[in-house]
Amino acid sequence: MPHPNDPTLRSFVAVDRASDFPIQNLPYGVFSTAASPTPRVGVAIGDYVLDLWELEQDCRIVVGEFGVFSAPTLNPFMTLGPKVWSQTRARISELLRQDHPELRDNEKLRARTLVPMAQTKLHLPIAVAGYTDFYSSKEHATNVGVMFRGKDNALQPNWLHMPIGYNGRASTVVVSGTKIRRPRGQLKPPSAEVPSFGPCKRLDFELEMGVVVGQPSAMGEMLSEQQAEEMIFGFVLLNDWSARDIQQWEYVPLGPFQAKAFATSISPWVVTREALEPFRVNGPMQDPAPLPYLKQAQPNNFDLQLDVGLRAAHMNEGQRICRTNFKYMYWSSVQQLVHHAACGCAMNVGDLLGSGTISGPEKDQRGSLLEISWNGTEPLDLAGGIKRTFLEDGDSLVMRGWCQGDGYRVGFGEVEGTIVAAE
């Protein structure tokens, strides 16, 4: 049987060459329809969703524990482990191949299992057990450090020695398309003597990737590089919305709190680690060399292009404001997971790890408005004479990401959020 990543594979389902969802991808999500409103697990293929619960009931897919695809999240399936993940993806690939008649020639089964994506509602794909956000782009950390501490003290002494992170809120992780209400909090601009309470005035986005942890680790145990990699089920696009003025007042001495806790948006499709294998690359040279527990024996970064579009409240179309690449990350996702567990922290199925803002070396590769507008001193010019330093009510932000193969792309769809006024 051909490997599901074989670039020559084609599906009997028509897939445009520019689609994010060719047969080489097969990302998992949770969907429902008006006719069948109960959320269940599906896989994206072109402009369709393949209903895995229908295939499971028909015994076309057997994973060893009946009913996992009728669940409203991917967690029960992820619990079954990497061997089952790989076997299931291979079986789905076989069913969708253009040279395999089992589904292709069964008109009734096709009608039940292939649902036009335009007729579906996509849901949060995982039950988020815990959420941790990292700070792992050297370019981003340097930009922020220069703004607030000066060029000679841009990176804190610990930054080059370990992935820096903080524990966020799983309760406010939402799926793409969810409206984002402007947060409220304590504000104290430099000119004020005492703080006040009110709506955030410097609302920002952060372009990130999210790691979906699909296997648990035991409390008190460390992880090897290989163990950490095998625990990763897949990746999502992630926007870690940030209230910069709330953060400025609260973050000393313990870091972000309410400035980040109000919302984190993720894409509805989880692209599996296996689908990204052909796009592995080495990350930046790490100097000084990391401590032994963080050393990597293989490339753990991915050549994954990222794009951010902003449609201001009075614009008809969005405008690209950033294009960068996940390969620039100084600390890899595997290193983040290894470090997270190094103290003995137990990891759970459904944990979500944010990569941290992804910025590149060029000005048009900055992954936040804080950087793009250089803390508000260099307003962003948009179509129609509109300017932005930070996000205003009615603004909509869209992030997209994909790995480009030979004649196909493995993509994530998009994560979108529109800002609405604070109550």
Q: Low-confidence segments, ≥5 residues, pLDDT <50?
A: none
**DSSP helical segment count:** 11
Rg from Cα:
22 Å
Quote the average pLDDT.
97
Strand content: 25-35%
Tell me the number of structural domains: 2
Q: Distance N terminus to C terminus?
A: 56 Å
Task: Outline the biggest β-sheet.
Answer: 8 strands, mixed
Helix content: 10-25%
C-alpha geometry: globular
What structural class do you assign from the helix and strand content?
alpha+beta
CATH class of the largest domain: Alpha Beta
**What's the number of extended β-strand segments?**
26
Q: Any key phrases for this structure?
A:
single chain; SH3 type barrels; eight-stranded mixed β-sheet; 11 helices; Fumarylacetoacetate hydrolase, domain 2; alpha+beta; five-stranded antiparallel β-sheet; 423 residues
Detailed description of the structure:
The chain has 423 residues and is an alpha+beta fold. It folds into two domains: 28-123, SH3 type barrels; 131-420, Alpha-Beta Complex (Fumarylacetoacetate hydrolase, domain 2), CATH 3.90.850. Helix content is 19%, strand content 27%. The chain is built from eleven helices and 26 strands. The protein has helices spanning 52-57, 75-79, 82-96, 101-104, 107-113, 138-149, 225-231, 244-250, 258-261, 333-342, 369-372; strands at 28-33, 40-45, 48-51, 114-116, 120-123, 131-134, 165-167, 173-175, 180-181, 184-187, 196-199, 203-204, 207-213, 232-239, 242-243, 264-266, 271-272, 280-281, 301-302, 305-311, 319-325, 352-354, 380-381, 387-388, 396-404, 409-420. The strands form seven sheets. Strands 6, 7, 8, 13, 14, 16, 17 and 22 form an eight-stranded mixed beta sheet that branches. It has a five-stranded antiparallel beta sheet with strand order 4-3-2-1-5. It holds the Pfam family FAA_hydrolase_N. One of its GO terms (biological process) is L-tyrosine catabolic process. Residues 132-419 form the Fumarylacetoacetase-like C-terminal domain.
